[in-house]
Write a structure and sequence with these properties.
- This protein is mostly helical and about 120 residues long.
- It has one domain: Histone Acetyltransferase, Chain A.
- It is about 60% helix and about 0% strand.
- It is built from 7 helices and no strands.
- The longest helix has 23 residues.
- It is globular.
Length: about 120
């Protein structure tokens, strides 16, 4: 798959954070915050933390070179959540719903902008 470079004036800016707001996905579970929440083992389990605020910051500051990088970071949020949380618990279920919503939105974005759909 060829990576599509980001264009200026990205029409997706802000959409993810507008629709997906649960605090655990919006705010990073970095070492300080994870300890504050009592999640002391989070840094040992999740080696590459990601959150929607960081995605938005990277998007707005032009740190993503391609759309694929954005999509990969968004997926990393869901992957991390499912890695850390037990299958069937409420946060895992919320994560699954948010992942499905995000995948639908990414698919719509790809179609609207002529980007290739990923091979599954």
């Amino acid at each position: 798959m060829t990576a599509t470079p980001m264009s200026s004036g990205n029409p997706s800016t802000g959409k993810v954070s507008c629709h997906l707001r649960p605090a655990k996905f919006v705010r990073s579970l970095n070492t300080g915050f994870s300890a504050e929440m009592g999640l002391l083992d989070y840094p040992q389990i999740v080696k590459n933390p990601m959150d929607l605020a960081t995605c938005k910051e990277r998007l707005l500051s032009g740190k993503y070179a391609t759309y694929e990088e954005v999509f990969a970071d968004i997926q990393l949020i869901w992957d991390n959540c499912k890695l850390y949380n037990m299958i069937g618990c409420e946060i895992y279920k919320v994560c699954e719903r948010m992942e499905k919503t995000a995948k639908r939105q990414v698919q719509k974005f790809r179609a609207a902008h002529g980007l290739p759909q990923p091979v599954t």
